[in-house]
Amino acid sequence: MERINLAGPWQLHVDGDTEGIRDIPCIIPGDIFSALLKENILPDPYYGKNEEVWQVLNQKDIELSYTFSVSSHMLEEGDPYLFLESVDTVADIYLNNSYLGHHENMFYPFYADLNGILREGENTIKVRCYSAEKKAMERAEELPYPIPYGAAPIHSPHRNLVRKVQCHSGWDWGPCLMVSGIYGKAYIGFNRPGHISHCTCRPLRRTESLWDVETTIHYIIPESKRDVGSSQWELAVYYELVAPDGKVVTQEERHYPVAGPGEHLLTANFTVSNPHLWWPAGYGKQSLYTLTVQVSACSVFPEDLEQTYASSASQGFSVSGEPSETLTKRIGFRTLEVLTQEDSIGRPLTFRINGRDIWVKGANWIPLDALPSRQTPDRYRQLLGDMVAAHMNMVRVWGGGQYEQDIFYDLCDELGILVWQDCMFACAMYPATPEFLSNVQKEIAYQVLRLKDHPCLALWCGNNENLGALTWFPETKQNRDRYIIDYDRLNEGIVGNTIRALDPDHIFWPSSPSGGPQDFSDNWHADAKGDMHYWSVWHEGKPFEAYYEVVPRFCSEFGYQSFPSLETVKTYCPQEEWNLTSPIMEHHQKSPRGNSLIIENFSRYFRFPVGFKNMLYLSQVQQAMAIQTAVEYWRSQRPRCMGALYWQLNDCWPVASWSSIEYSGKWKLLHYRARRFFAPVALVSYIKEGRLSVILLNDTDQDILGDVTVRVLDFSGKPLLERVYPCEGKKEGATVILQESIENFTSKPEQYFMHATFKGSLAEDSLKAPVVKEALQTTSFFTLPKKCYLQDPVLTFTIEKTKTGLLQAVLSVERPAFFVALDVEGFPGYWEDNCFTLLPGGPRRITYIPRPGTALPSEIEFKEQCSVYDLWESYQE
């Protein structure tokens, strides 16, 4: 069926006397700030302190308009309607000066009937977006009592009163840029007699080998103003299900009589034998089946047309010559259980896929960019691919951001990344007025029907930290019952009930963190139930060893900050301000006390680094060290702890933050370490209460036989002792190799360190999981690194070209080097390993993996842009 695509250059007009911001082009889908930036109306909001300049737009209303032509042939297609997938946020919409409606929620589409309004020839659509900040302030004045919210240093007030991306108003890692615009699909469609609003597909396992596929098409027939001759329709639906190998599994058509306008549910069940299963990354293949449905209609459907339709439908045949509508989606066959039954400890939170308990490894996701126009498919593909490269199998879509674009969930399906899906409420109380609740109910219903069939979807969560926020604000402390009632009306009465009604196959988790349904526990400090947000190491300034004091059943947030690389710092800070306490460096640090906490730990664990570059480097070392401490210890506590999602994967602008990948896409040292500590098989070590533990982690379903060699060396590389421990690494478990007092190894902890390696029966084919050789070795200091008498490693490196044309660094040392880190500027990509211990005894070769489209230079040119860091060197003048 033909559509009129409204994507393209619209005209932007900003109200008021703002000089120069009138009638400029604005690409839709996209945001108005990107349009202003392209026209050089205002300076780059990501550079210096320019964010402050853009605050002038917070109180401005804007208008977007688009003129297009319609032929008489198009008008004969059917009853026209307007579809705008996401209007940000408070808007009135007009066509040819006829008012189409009001919209106040960017999380569900705007739909309007255009009968009698769309005309042959020239047409103009106008979307008038009102200042979300002004509207929120007006709502705050109208409410009978305040609705408190968490706020960043630069913020837009009362963000919680409008249904837009909450972090647009600023967060403790992001700028306050109150963008507006139109995102996603924008088109004029034609009902003849209706259109598909959703198609849901529910695979259900009936026996070991048989699955049912329950399909429901939500078909909308509006009130028609056209003389179509009949309100009785016969809908013919052709179904085709194709396996990953291209073989047709199901191909049939069904007929549905429908009468009059309204939503019609067209259902069909199919049986599939022995389908290929969908697995999370690291556990098996991501088998995806393609379902195609085609709807055709006629007012009278003769029985003798059935045979004709059956032979023609696969070729796109439309019954009685009427145009057809086709929809294609992918589905996966997998069972999902979320185990939350109370046990002797409290309440677990364990994800079981196809009968296997998954140790969840991943990170929290914030919007790709503060400017929505920059949220491109290539960036989604790169960032999610980087998660899999670091052996992650779950991403949490955080509740202060957005329900992500379709490509996000499609890629998660392809890559095997489970999705913890927050609903978009965060760190605040929210109104419980009838208007607000009605608005939210439409939002949740739309998003559930849109997302629930993705095999990657693992869980719906009501909000981020709103349960805990009941204890944050003076208002909630003084009148707790009032706000608990409001919280319950929204979170359970609307969000939870809507999800449970529309998606019985996924659990509704009330809040993150929480102990579970009807549990109001403090899950920032209590670790026996549900999911935990453990922030004591960062916000309370506790040492990294505090991670040993808790064993969460599932930790869905914990984090530690670092600065980005020098290459990224250069994009927002001039060289004269390369100082951690300069105004610009502090502006690009949104967390209170952030830079101070990073600097404090320089002196807690390390000798103070010399120079700005070494401070950036060491901040990333200690971030990697913090998160590694937590993850390795919690993995060793399986099955009590069954998952860790660190905060956070990505940045939405260049900034000091908790991310493991910088805004530019460059991996921080944490992401390299994650590739090791999240590996399916990993050798780890830690010192707790004066005892050294060495543990083999094994997430595969095969036992592993081998030997662990433990060596104690001094800082010249001379061995003090060596022991070999035969081991059997139990499947889906943590095997203790040794636990001994460090006094059994040395009486001079400041002069020695431990290095252990595993060698054994590791074959990727039999393990059905990738083997990461770098994860099969581990290093521990016997005391704080700053107390250790490191020696100059005499580190040298060269750049060579490999047989495949890639470039690699060749590194050698005369004495041990710690936290060795390679960096290169100007050539997007990542090293195959980084942030490692380098011992004497031969060169180490590390290949650089360029991003697609990156042309690598000569070895000499590449080396000129390379830097190599190590711990000893960071202390030197």
Notes on the protein architecture:
- There is one protein chain.
- By secondary structure, the chain is an alpha+beta fold.
- It folds into 5 domains: 4-190, Jelly Rolls, CATH 2.60.120.260; 193-322 and 324-331, Immunoglobulin-like (Sandwich), CATH 2.60.40.10; 367-679, Glycosidases (TIM Barrel, Alpha-Beta Barrel); 682-787, Immunoglobulins (Immunoglobulin-like, Sandwich), CATH 2.60.40; 796-874, Immunoglobulin-like, CATH 2.60.40.
- 20% of the residues lie in helices and 33% in strands.
- It has 19 helices and 43 strands.
- A 6-stranded antiparallel beta sheet has the order 3-2-5-10-7-8. Strands 26-25-24-23-22-29 form a 6-stranded parallel beta sheet. Strands 1, 4, 6, 9 and 11 form a 5-stranded antiparallel beta sheet that branches.
- A hairpin with a 5-residue loop joins β37 and β38.
- α5 packs parallel to α6 (406-415), α7 (434-451) packs parallel to α10 (480-502) and α14 (594-605) crosses α15 (612-636).
- The chain is globular.
- The termini are far apart.
- Mean pLDDT is 94; it is low at 301-321.
Query: What structural class do helix, strand and pairing data support?
Result: alpha+beta
Q: How far from one another are the termini?
A: 70 Å
Query: In DSSP terms, counting alpha (H) and pi (I) runs of 4 or more, how many helices?
Result: 19
Query: For this structure, what is the CATH class of the largest domain?
Result: Alpha Beta
Q: Widest sheet: strand order?
A: 3-2-5-10-7-8
Q: What is the averaged pLDDT score?
A: 94
Radius of gyration, in Å, reads 29 Å
Helix amount, in percent?
10-25%
Largest sheet: 6 strands, antiparallel
Estimate the strand proportion.
25-35%
Specify the overall morphology. Answer: globular
Predict the CATH topology of the largest domain: TIM Barrel
How many beta-strand elements? Answer: 43
CATH architecture label of the largest domain: Alpha-Beta Barrel
CATH H-level homologous superfamily name of the largest domain? Glycosidases
Number of domains: 5
User: Which regions have little confidence, pLDDT < 50, spanning 5+ residues?
Assistant: 301-321
